[in-house]
Design goal:
It contains seven helices and eight strands. The chain has 190 residues and is of the alpha/beta class. A hairpin with a 2-residue loop joins β6 and β7. The protein is elongated and about 55 Å long.
């Protein structure tokens, strides 16, 4: 049984099977997180990158083998100790910038930090203002309340949020000890 087909869009594949991005990247599909992936089929994307039918079929076989191997593994749960000993922190400068953004956008509540499917490497960070939910991890530091859902906490435990200003631009930077790599775009992690 094939879980992944040539006709599926790259966006659907990454959303349903985020770990599949590593196989796709090894075959040169570095655009798995680009703006066209919600619309472009795996086959069209591969052909557009110069892959032969044999290479596409080989990649498809690897992807489906990977999905089969993952479906045999038991679901991992968020470690119980994460709630007790886990932490996500924010620097004073980043907290100041969050306060400025809240004020200028007339927002209130907390800063939600999440890891979602997408980006060139399969996952990307998302930050937005939101109200805490009962199931969230909640951290307060420098006058900012951070909220993180349980699934994202698996990836964010130990992360420090900073704000950097440089000649290349300014923005929030997440120093995540759990990240095993990323992409040149700087917005994608795995």
């Amino acid at each position: 049984m094939q879980h992944i087909t040539k006709e599926m869009t790259m966006g659907d594949i990454i959303e349903k099977y985020p770990y599949a991005s590593e196989v796709m990247l090894t075959y040169g599909l570095h655009c798995v997180g680009c703006h066209v992936n919600p619309y472009e089929s795996l086959e069209n994307g591969a052909l557009g990158h110069g892959m032969s039918d044999d290479e596409i079929n080989s990649m498809l076989q690897e992807l489906n083998d990977l999905v089969k191997n993952h479906s045999d593994e038991p679901e991992t749960e968020v470690k119980a100790e994460t709630k007790e000993g886990g932490k996500v922190t924010i620097t004073g400068f980043a907290a100041q910038k969050v306060g400025e953004l809240m004020k200028s956008s007339h927002s209130h509540g907390a800063l939600r930090v999440a890891v979602v499917a997408g980006g060139c490497s399969g996952k990307t960070y998302k930050m937005d203002f939101d109200e805490p939910k009962d199931s969230d991890f909640v951290f307060e530091e420098h006058g900012v309340t951070l909220v993180i859902d349980k699934k994202s906490m698996e990836f964010l435990d130990g992360t420090q949020i900073d704000y950097v200003e440089s000649l290349q631009g300014a923005g929030f930077k997440l120093e995540n000890p759990n990240s095993t790599g990323g992409c040149g775009c700087g917005k994608s992690v795995h």
